[in-house]
Amino acid sequence: MVPIESLLPSNLANAVRRIIRSILLVSIMLPALLSCSLTENNGLKAIKTGGELVVLTRTSPTTFFDTPEGPAGFEYDLVTSFANYLGVKPRFIVAEKFNDILPRLIKGEANMAAAGITITEARRKVVQFGPPYQQIRQQVIYRLGTDRPATVADLVGRHVDVQAGTSQVELLQELKREYPDLKWTEVSKDTEELLLQVWQGLVELTISDSNIMSVNRQYFPDLQVAFTMPKPKLLAWAFPQSADRSLLHAAEKFLEQSRASGELAQLIDRYYGPASRSNFINMSVYKVRIRSRLPEFQIMFENAGKKYDVDWRLLAAISYQESFWEPLATSPTGVRGIMMLTEETAGQLEISDRLDPAQSIDGGTRYILNLIDRMPAGITGPDRQWMALAAYNIGINHLEDARIITQKKGGDPNKWNDVKNNLPLLSDKNWYGKTKYGYARGMESVIFVNRVRTYYDVLVKIDDEEKAKNKPRALDLKAPAI
Q1: Is residue 322 flagged as an active site residue?
Q2: 433 pLDDT tier (thresholds 50, 70, 90)
């Protein structure tokens, strides 16, 4: 058969050839294009069909942790909001080590990872990143009273411990090009554990993301920022490279909407900003509030104390630590009111309005007395009260884990002084992995109890001084000296 273009003038024949090639090219590519359009949303569609968003994370105060009120944390709240946006439920897989998260994501164990992950060039090669949701800086941390390094050059010859597999290691590797004598130790401990060890004097220096430092510093005021690295870093969710981009595109739209609505800014402020309740003991502020704010609620504390036979000053001390005597206070985990009760606890106590200070104080009193009653019979005297306070903060189950650790280490599980030394181990993976109820911020509970005791002691002193001042002076019936 003679090709039709051979019968045509040369210029027209060339045009026909181009048209035929275009038709052939389209016919070859069309199935692939149709396949792409059909499978583009397969990942997201599968998640919606299954009704579950599987997320890799890690346990830390800035990401995901359990409280007596349930799971909490910045990443937990943000991911839960994203899951609601998709119309599914989140399921969190908690990795034991930070540097296990991305390898497990690559293996396909989850749809995404949300764990305070810094975007780096090395990581871009193995995972897809969503849009950044927070900017942080890397900070060199030391303990107040020790030699403060002021520059990177000052780190040479010092003992610097950093968590293995983190962006801090990549930072130090970059700095080593300029400072060849710079050395450091990579350890399996989380940054939060390293900060605790700096505070304890067991580690000289570490490097922390600024958001992690801001959360931990409120509990350990002696932790100080030596200096901050100049280049800011961005945090983002990670997605498998092998997956289609449908879930990533949904995350982009969600974060854009969350940023526009102000939800993201509110969440950052709740966990890291001035809205977070500071836990520093500021005695000057406390004494001012004893005069200015306590009188508004003192009669309510006194009435509850008389009704349930408990020292009203202890109730007031608990309330100040919980809410600073703010009847409308709300925590990041949703506890509310002057005694910071959960919605579930308020329901059990038949409290209709947690923001009503009289109801909140009455309910909080019954709650702490219930915890005291639930302490094992072997815990007696003041230890019973301090243990109950720890349970008020951390939950009775985590307290029991700490008591078991205390016993295993040869201490007395019925003595607060022994148990408080072991509560911090609930955030040490070498220990909490062996407990029944897992990770908890045990050091926070120790600090909680210590501060309630301090606030209580101050109230007792001031109250006793007031009573002595107002007590009628006895008449001097002695005969005058002659």
Answers
A1: yes
A2: confident
